[in-house]
Amino acid sequence: MNSASFPSFPLPRGLDAGHAAFLLDFDGTLVDIAPSPGEVRVAPGLRAALTMLRDRCGGAVAIVTGRPIEQIDHFLPGVAEAVCGEHGVAIRRHPSAAIERADVPAFPRNWLEAAEHALKTWPGATLERKNAGVVLHYRAAPDAGAALRDMAEDWLAGQSIFELHPAKMAWEIRPAGIDKGHAVQAVMQQPPFAGRRPVFVGDDVTDEDGIRAARALGGAGFRIPEDFPDAAAFRSWLTDLAARSRWDG
């Protein structure tokens, strides 16, 4: 992205590397959406750009994702100071820290068995298991979307322990009260993030809590495609930003 297009995605006035913290979603933000979670590709130069940004911001770069932390370590090893996985169920505040896990209920076994049985009738639909929930993916079986939603809503009726969240061509079931806003607030409490202004960037409905939390803390929140056309445009902007000597144009 050239300098002429940079002002169309402005940071808050006066924000510089000494006062900013970046909290970034992974799928659809740092990497393009792939047919399945394991098929994503990390673009050339992304690791270097994130590392440069991290160093300029005194370490204040975090990945906030719906994925388990271990998957971020696989795709972006040694890049982020902090990683929040599963929408904040798991948080590692710095690379050598232990992973903190929220006290969440076990996902009901009968729901899991029902999901596995139902997906057999929808070729292409897949079940992604997480430590505290599941994701029902239907990108490769778009006709399954409504049926999978109805099934999940039937499970959740009459209880308040788990919630259903829409995602891109997927339905995610996870414990109530855990979201990316919770993750942003937790990360921003400790160095090197404490006292900085958070900049959160995401692309999905599940990122809106993180955007709201960042703005509430005096920072900024951006969402693809409203603020950036796509993940490639954001990566270009991020690379340009990391290399700039000044961030005010």
TrEMBL record:
Keywords: Hydrolase, Magnesium, Metal-binding. Signal peptide: none annotated. GO terms for biological process: trehalose biosynthetic process. Its EC number is 3.1.3.12. InterPro entries: HAD-like_sf (IPR036412), HAD-SF_hydro_IIB (IPR006379), HAD_sf (IPR023214), OTSB-like (IPR044651), Trehalose_PPase (IPR003337). It comes from the Bacteria. Coiled coil: none annotated. Its cofactor is Mg(2+). GO terms for molecular function: metal ion binding; trehalose-phosphatase activity. It catalyses: alpha,alpha-trehalose 6-phosphate + H2O = alpha,alpha-trehalose + phosphate. The keyword Metal-binding applies. SUPFAM superfamilies: HAD-like. Pathway: Glycan biosynthesis; trehalose biosynthesis. It holds the Pfam family Trehalose_PPase. NCBIfam families: HAD-SF-IIB, T6PP. Belongs to the trehalose phosphatase family. Removes the phosphate from trehalose 6-phosphate to produce free trehalose. This is Trehalose 6-phosphate phosphatase. It comes from Acidomonas methanolica NBRC 104435.
